[in-house]
Amino acid sequence: MTGFNEIQPILLVEDNPVDLDLTLRAFRSQNLENPIIVARDGEEALAFIEKWEAGEPRPVIILLDLKMPKVAGLEVLKVLKNHPEFKTIPVVVLTTSSESSDVHAAYQLGANSYIVKPVDFEKFLEVARQIDLYWRLLNKADQ
């Protein structure tokens, strides 16, 4: 199976080591060829903006946790979606929060999708398959 895009990485913004490991294992099981780069908090995620402005490949998709130290996911989302160049990068909120206020706020700020992380690994694998299928085969990306 080929990945989302042969060149562009996937940015995973996740501070919880268990959830990070689960997400990476789920995507590895999908045989994604895209490199997955990790930001372990919101501050690290926002630091990527300077790297992209300097010419590093921008991600084909950003998987963003909401509850993070330093800079919360909603603030990261707000900055990304207000950036004149990078606002078109699809952002999928991947979080443990199912609070309707978080769902509403994420969509108001421009999230492309909101997924509540399942705690069961098999269900998480299914989520990874669905994300892969949708973003690789069905979604048209802004190149």
Overview of the structural elements:
By secondary structure, the protein is α/β, with parallel strands linked by helices. The chain has helices at about 15-30, 40-55, 75-80, 100-110, 120-140, and strands at about 10-15, 35-40, 60-65, 90-95, 115. It has a five-stranded parallel beta sheet with strand order 2-1-3-4-5. Strand 1 (about 10-15), helix 1 (about 15-30) and strand 2 form a beta-alpha-beta unit. Helix 1 (about 15-30) crosses helix 5 (about 120-140) and helix 2 (about 40-55) runs parallel beside helix 3 (about 75-80). The protein is globular and about 35 Å long. About 30% of the residues are buried. Residues about 1-5 have low confidence and may be disordered.
Annotate the secondary structure layout.
Elements: E1 10-13, H1 17-29, E2 36-39, H2 42-53, E3 61-64, H3 73-82, E4 91-95, H4 100-108, E5 113-116, H5 121-138
Parallel strand pairs: 1-2, 1-3, 3-4, 4-5
Task: Fill in the keyword field for this structure.
single chain; 143 residues; alpha/beta; five-stranded parallel sheet; 43% helix; 15% strand; globular
Q: What is the multimeric organization of the chains shown?
A: single chain
Global morphology:
globular
Rounded to the nearest angstrom, the distance between the terminal CA atoms is: 21 Å
> Uncertain runs with pLDDT below 50, 5 residues or more?
1-5
The helix count comes to 5
